[in-house]
Design brief:
The chain has 139 residues and is α+β, with helices and mostly antiparallel strands. The chain contains two helices and eight strands. The protein is globular, with a radius of gyration of 14 Å. 31% of the residues are buried.
Length: 139
């Protein structure tokens, strides 16, 4: 967990992404399920660990968390996250054939699916990505 983020975020050393330690930390929506458009806005407006700059992850970024040998949730043993549901989570990635659909990741199985953007599922925000530079001071 990152001290600079009041231990509310986790740095993935493999990808350089910073993830919410608990994707379910919204007091106004304890189960934090939303349609795709609201999920996008929710991440854009979030403050986690006193920091802004959050966004919905791409399907590739979300899938990078998966350990295919695990299920319910399909995360590595000993992962540092809490309140992760074995359920689908939105990605920011829109289906290129039908833009009314977006890709989601089912954390029960670790499989990728396509859902209509009006569906209501879980949200897990991320920060960083290409161009991010981390120093020793953030850990």
């Amino acid at each position: 967990m990152l001290r600079d983020f009041k231990e509310a975020a986790v740095l993935d050393w493999e990808t350089g992404l910073v993830w919410e330690q608990s994707p379910e930390n919204s007091k106004s929506n304890p189960t934090f399920v939303q349609n795709w458009h609201n999920a996008q806005a929710s991440c854009n407006f979030r403050t986690v660990g006193g920091r802004k700059g959050w966004r919905l992850p791409t399907i590739q970024e979300l899938a990078s968390l998966v350990d295919p040998t695990q299920s319910s949730p399909a995360l590595p043993r000993g992962h540092p996250f809490s309140n992760v549901h074995s359920s689908p989570y939105w990605s920011a990635t829109t289906n290129t054939i039908d833009s009314s659909f977006a890709w989601d990741l089912d954390l029960d199985s670790g499989n990728v699916f396509n859902l209509g953007k009006t569906a209501v599922i879980h949200v897990w925000c991320v920060r960083g990505g290409q161009g991010s530079i981390f120093s020793d001071s953030v850990i």
